């Protein structure tokens, strides 16, 4: 892919152009124009471009009777083409074009006929290279999978490979432009377009044969713009052959290995692949968590309620160095304060009224050679925090009513939706315990920051819900999916799953539409939409309302960062003209 910098004029301009000064004589100017074989030259004042002088203006002035020794000050023209250094060469309109610094007005370079010719030659070479790349893509498209097709949002075929042509008996040329259901029998691509839910590894009857296919919606800016249909295996028999090969391979490993494999299969372990999501936000988090799993260091998982903190804790344990031990989960907020120490550290027989005969081991003992997960650690009482710190440091616990310490080895993972740093500053959480726990910090992004994962999460939940409610299957309308993309999801993944379960439980029809959504869902969505619009209007009027220059400068800098330096977009958001923005940028030296 070509970098965007390649098309900016700063990459092509002549950086040291011939320039004139306003006190230069007309005769000398004509000589410079002649020697440079150019029709005009720029005039600068302290390196700032103030205008141009053309050979026509010089000759017309001499013809009018003004002498050769007169300065050019009176014939400087303010009509010329200038752009900033980030201007695209593809939008150049004639030459010479001068490149001027937006902040200072200083001349940085020029694009002449020579540079323009080089640009055109380079663009032509790029075009030829792009044609070659397209040919490679075409070859890959025809080679990849047993069949591959891409449709637009209306279900009309835009791309169709040779393999699919062979199966359906329709040439690529005939297929392109037709509705997909007219070309591929029994296709569910129109349903995927309507619902936005991907369908992976599905059985598809085609030409009297069972095929294995993927059907994937293509999302862009929160709406479906098309779908991809992939024929993975040309028959179920191919899948059966693969399974047979795996079975044969297991048999060759011997009975002992087969027994171990059976044990692992029977005891399902939770992996990072079980955490649904392919967005950059969640992928980066899973990447860090995988690294954390390969150590025994404490992990502090932070994130809003419902993002799946315990899922990450389980995956770290099950794929980590302590996976042979138990995973003990404790919700610190759910245990009454007067019982939390007995739950964590255990107690001896007779330690208190009602104590269990023989005593009871605490959670730390149960987690010996395994992992203890303390969820909602921010709700841990201060008095208990002191004892937790000692257990972590000394690796020993003492039951309530006991006299002898018990040695324990464990890995500790904690989680909270609170700001522990703020709690430390306010004396609500022990600083020494915080730094003991905050060895490997892991922040789980909220669902609103990874909305592209919503279809994947829904797709994974549908079979579970169908089994739970004994349903043959339900589809979700595209408008519902679009609303899901706009919704803020304050309850995160947990809220999404709860909404899906409610829809399954309360909807009698097989297709879920907007009318099936609960009223409070719309009220919350409308409230969020109103808050977003109000916030946008506030930001747009902020520059006009603020008087203090320092505040105005900070706002402009903030908006420029948000739009990645795009001056036109920044001016639009600030509610001012581009010229006004340039003046403010110059004034504040931004």
From TrEMBL:
The keyword Transmembrane does not apply. It comes from the Bacteria. Residues 275-505 form the Sigma-54 factor interaction domain. Residues 141-177 form the PAS domain. Keywords: ATP-binding, CBS domain, Nucleotide-binding, Transcription, Transcription regulation. InterPro entries: AAA+_ATPase (IPR003593), AAA_lid_NorR (IPR058031), CBS_dom (IPR000644), CBS_dom_sf (IPR046342), Homeodomain-like_sf (IPR009057), HTH_Fis (IPR002197), P-loop_NTPase (IPR027417), PAS (IPR000014). The keyword ATP-binding applies. Pfam families: AAA_lid_14, CBS, HTH_8, Sigma54_activat. Residues 13-70 form the CBS domain. This is Transcriptional regulator with PAS, ATPase and Fis domain. It comes from Sporosarcina psychrophila. The lineage of its organism: Bacteria, Bacillati, Bacillota, Bacilli, Bacillales.
